[in-house]
């Protein structure tokens, strides 16, 4: 990110000193846990002190873990503020509380998952996912984009997902919310370029955060009676059964994702998990779209033994590579 927001920030006056003015103001949503928390801390602890992080969350009662992780940076390069992406007033109030309303980097991270058969989900539950994952981004941009346009400077980082490119079994509405984000950003990017603004879609595969636990727990206690027997069994005996295994084998840590976001000057689309890219590559490999569906189908319903064995194999490889690293041997 830092390279892409290279310009001296505009505006002045409400900064204590030139050093503080030189720092790029970063607004991140959803910092009470997971990727948002990790990214806020990573940027606040930047050795070159390039960032002033406004780490926001909808419920300040949950600020403990972030305060802990921020340590000495709290109140210096990291400030915690309230912001609910489903509440326009809270977004406006938060932006107004930032000096000159100057946001150099916006990280739209807040989001939630939803899994299960649509026969067992209410439209209300589905709307909440769209309202958070998609309209949350829209509300943020309606408030912040005009200022960035005026300053002809700004970087918008959107935490999308591999499921913004490719749907996964029993993630129908969640994938729809991320596809919506991707389509919205593809359209906006062209206009934004005219104002020298940069959009970056970050597309993690499975990441081991609260997201996984919340989604799994909701899935486990879901009332499946509205679905036919075969669908209910598919959800329970295949999806939920494999769920933890997927995260254990393919899952990245929130810190990994934060590291990647900060390290590279992300292009328009950036997938963080190289273990997952073979799946998404299938989509780009076959314009008519049958290939990934066919392969996912086979993995799940015909070769589930092979599939879970391969997940185990991946887990073993990662464990071994970590092990050799831990012992200080140069990783091969
Ligand atoms: N974990 C994964 O496997 C993957 C996650 N992602 C995406 O990463 C992003 C972060 O999720 P992750 O860190 O994994 O999961 P977490 O559940 O740990 O974090 C989600 C964050 O979003 C916040 N949030 C939810 N609704 C709102 C709202 N209305 N206003 C403000 N904040 C809100 C949560 O706050 P609260 O504590 O109040 O609920 C929480 O801080 C999401 O957009 C998710 O879709 C993408 C790919 C993979
Ligand atoms: C890979 C794969 C599966 C599950 C993938 C999962 C569970 C991905 C989770 C991604 C997340 C959590 C993204 C969040 O935004 C199946 C369907 C079991 C079988 C087919 C191959």
Automatic annotation (TrEMBL):
UniProt-recorded Gene Ontology molecular function terms: estradiol 17-beta-dehydrogenase [NAD(P)+] activity
Keyword terms, alphabetized: Lipid metabolism, Oxidoreductase
Catalytic residues (UniProt): 174 (proton acceptor)
GO cellular component terms given for this protein: cytosol
Amino acids binding NADP(+): 30-58, 84, 178
Keyword Cell division: no
Residues that, per the record, bind substrate: 161
GO BP, sorted A to Z: estrogen biosynthetic process
Family of this protein: Belongs to the short-chain dehydrogenases/reductases (SDR) family.
Protein name as it appears in the record: Retinol dehydrogenase
Species assigned in the record: Catharus ustulatus (Russet-backed thrush)
């Amino acid at each position: 990110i830092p390279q892409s927001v290279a310009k001296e920030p505009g505006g002045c006056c409400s900064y204590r000193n030139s050093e503080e003015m030189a720092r790029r103001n970063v607004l991140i949503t959803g910092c009470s846990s997971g990727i948002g928390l990790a990214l806020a801390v990573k940027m606040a602890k930047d050795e070159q002190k390039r960032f002033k992080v406004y780490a926001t969350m909808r419920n300040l009662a949950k600020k403990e873990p972030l305060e802990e992780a921020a340590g000495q940076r709290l109140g210096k390069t990291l400030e915690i503020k309230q912001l609910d992406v489903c509440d326009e007033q809270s977004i406006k109030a938060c932006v107004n509380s930032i000096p000159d309303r100057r946001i150099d980097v916006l990280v739209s991270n807040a989001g939630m998952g939803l899994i299960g058969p649509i026969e067992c989900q209410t439209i209300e539950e589905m709307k909440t996912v769209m309202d958070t994952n998609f309209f949350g981004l829209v509300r943020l941009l309606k408030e912040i984009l005009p200022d960035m346009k005026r300053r002809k400077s700004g970087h918008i980082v959107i935490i999308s997902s591999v499921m913004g490119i490719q749907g996964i079994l029993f993630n129908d509405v969640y994938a729809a919310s991320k596809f919506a984000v991707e389509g919205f950003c593809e359209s906006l990017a062209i206009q934004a370029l005219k104002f020298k603004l940069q959009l970056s879609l970050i597309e993690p595969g499975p990441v081991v955060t609260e997201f996984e636990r919340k989604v799994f727990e909701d899935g486990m206690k879901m009332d499946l009676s509205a679905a036919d027997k075969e669908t209910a069994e598919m959800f329970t005996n295949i999806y939920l059964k494999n769920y933890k295994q997927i995260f254990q084998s393919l899952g990245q840590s929130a810190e990994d994702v934060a590291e990647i976001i900060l390290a590279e000057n992300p292009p328009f689309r950036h997938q963080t998990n190289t273990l997952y890219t073979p799946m998404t590559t299938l989509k780009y490999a076959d314009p008519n779209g049958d290939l990934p569906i066919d392969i996912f189908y086979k993995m799940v319903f015909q070769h589930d033994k092979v599939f879970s064995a391969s997940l185990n194999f991946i887990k073993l490889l990662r464990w071994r590579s970590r092990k050799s690293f831990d012992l200080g041997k140069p990783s091969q």
